[in-house]
Amino acid sequence: MKFTPVFFGSSPDMPGIPPFPASVPGNIQSDFIKAHPEFAGDLNFGLEHRKMLPLEAYAWFYKTTLDYALAPGEKLWFVTKGIDYIWSLLLDGEEFYAHEGMFSRVELCLTDLLGDKLTPRAEFAVKIHPHPMLYPATDRTPRHRSQAAQCVKPPVSYEWDWHPRVIPSGIWDETYFETRTDAHISDVEARYVLSEDLSRAEVRITVEAARPAEVLFRSPSGETVFEGRTSPDSPVLCFTLEHPVLWYCRGMGDPALYTYEISTGGDRKTGTVGFRRTRLVMNAGAWREPAGFPKSRSNPPAQIELNGLRVFAKGSNYVNQEIFTGTLTRERYEEAVRDAAECNMNILRCWGGSGVQKEDFYDLCDRYGIMLWVEFPLACNNYFDSERYLAVLEQEASAIIRKIRRHPCLVLWCGGNELFNSWSGMTEQSLALRLLDKLTFELAPEIPFNMTSPLSGMKHGGYTFIDRETGLDPFALFGQSRATAYTEFGVPGIPSAEFIREIVPEEELFPPKPGPESSWEAHHAFNAWGSDAWLCFGTLERFGDVSSLEKTAETSAWLQSVGYKAIFEAARRQKPYCGMAINWCYGEPWKCAVNNSLIAWPERKKDAYYAVRDSLRDVLGSAQIPKFMWSPGETMVLVPWLLNDTRESQKGTVTLSILWRGEKTVLGSADLEAKPLGNAKGEAVTWQIPEDAAPKERFTVTAELDRGNGDILANSYELVIETR
């Protein structure tokens, strides 16, 4: 029997503050401000989040009075799936266990460990030590993400260009006490090897239990396909499954899951297995690089092959959905995963700065058919080779691998985000990355591994509507680009005027202004990444109406929507050389005034979400448009495409038209057939911009796809006349 007693939180750094209710799972800082609203209000509003800074140096306690009874043969255990980050356990004030790391599952037999010291009504405490810091913050060394460079704690909370400086800690994942007998099942894992032709699976089920266990293995339809029995002396069962039903990502087939049930008579465990083979293979044409001297290596592979099929990976970068990740529930995870599937995505890149999620997240991705690229908790820092750091990394990375490797949604490991850049300074010779390569090979060799993103041939950026380096808009920039994978790119957007009113005080609302005490800047409208990002007010003023908060938000939403459409469709047209298009980013953990996200916190879909949903349809009529801004009298050259991300050939008629001042002009149609997982390109059509076109005047290009089934799908792009 497992139970979680009522915990109360306290801090020795706040004498006179009485204990407060503490949620398990949860985060101690969140519980504190909930109990003491006079200390800090809504962290999403104004500058309230800055009130959390003094808490960074505090220690915290979770305390409870034990209340249990043991039957003959029973022992009391303490079990946690995650406590953030440096913590220790105390009984009646005496420390008996210490740990660093938040992703390792820890199970302690308190009966054996504490002996006679363990009694009902004893005080049990979890001490949370102050946040790990590589260096203290001073005037010369201010607070910065690099303070996280020697811990395996997600660096994002040390502040990012879309995340406030709010660092959580505490009992963030399921944690409980449990009475156990020898009937307890400690662990179950089902592993398998697929034959080269995918027609046979060699299954290996390992049961850790002190008693014999009955094993049932069922097909996705519920039919029992194997029965067996393990014993303490023979804990492994092996069997062959002929013609297994394979797991596929969304859009490629069903995410089929087998189930198993393990029982000792006194305990029972269940789980799922998805049979799939994932590989990272060379992109089409990549072996031909480099074309000239000096001869060196080709660009590394960035093409996901799932069950022998080259999948175009289209999706988004997933980051923590909450500042206080311990508060996340299965329902909140399901909102995100379901919305990703409904957006026609088939992959989420679990960005390294955010860490690892609770088990529910991976289970839901299995069920919805969302592939996962999973990074370890390294991002944009130099995780240098200290003995202490490497020891903790090995412990935590091993725990992460063992936790996630059973999930069919997992298709790629990655060492972390942007580690081969000047701001990180790591290379293939960094011991942390060599260690992660070793651990993934030893513990999950069937899953590919990349040391970081991006690698040669892959691209991160741009992140603004007008590219800072080239001055090009998304149509022009990505139309001229070539990459094996676009694993980060973004276009900023304001969620809505109503949303801004929820976070910016009335006296600051409009016009938006930067400054150290500006709520707009604190919520990343200015100086997030460059002085004018993410708002880019000059760009909004250049193309649209910024005369009010409402008009500014509408202009921003328009540019974000059309920008994302341009990028996703340009990347899809670059198949088969290009294998991925994954935007930055999907959601956010608090209310950003402006962000590249498709979903504003907590789960508000921006206009851009719906634009991306349309651009990611598995079968899509698309218009290749050379640029966003046009001049009077200029001739547009447009090319119709049929984009196909399915396993079958697709036929259809793609018709291009222009909507100008309320009148629709059909420019031409193309009857196209796209091969499985391929594209088809039609003949170009032209249209001349009227000479009387006015600055900032908008017009719409539409690609209509008629597949002969009576359902015509329209795909539109709203463009603009350049300011003279």
3D architecture notes:
This protein has 724 residues and is α+β, with helices and mostly antiparallel strands. It has 4 domains: 2-131 and 167-179, Jelly Rolls, CATH 2.60.120.260; 185-263 and 274-278, Immunoglobulin-like (Sandwich); 299-615, Glycosidases (TIM Barrel); 619-721, Immunoglobulin-like (Sandwich). The chain is 17% helix and 30% strand. The chain is built from 12 helices and 39 strands. The strands form 10 sheets. Strands 3-2-4-9-6-7 form a 6-stranded antiparallel beta sheet, covered by helices on one side. Helix 3 packs parallel to helix 4 and helix 11 (549-573) runs parallel beside helix 12. The longest helix has 25 residues, at 549-573. It is globular, with a radius of gyration of 27 Å. 46% of the residues are buried. The mean pLDDT is 97.
- Using the alpha-carbon principal axes, give the shape: globular
* CATH domain fold name of the largest domain: TIM Barrel
- Kindly provide the radius of gyration, computed on alpha-carbon positions and rounded to a whole number of angstroms: 27 Å
Distance between the termini: 74 Å
Please state the second-level CATH architecture of the largest domain: Alpha-Beta Barrel
The number of distinct helices, counting runs of at least 4 residues, comes to: 12
For the largest beta sheet, what order do the strands appear in spatially? 3-2-4-9-6-7
Question: Helical content, roughly?
Answer: 10-25%
What's the main sheet like? 6 strands, antiparallel
> Which CATH top level class of the largest domain fits?
Alpha Beta
Extended strand count? 39
- From the helix content, strand content and strand pairing, which structural class follows? alpha+beta
Integer tally of domains: 4
Name of the CATH homologous superfamily of the largest domain:
Glycosidases
Mean pLDDT: 97
Weakly predicted, low-confidence segments:
none
- As a percent range, the share of strand residues is 25-35%
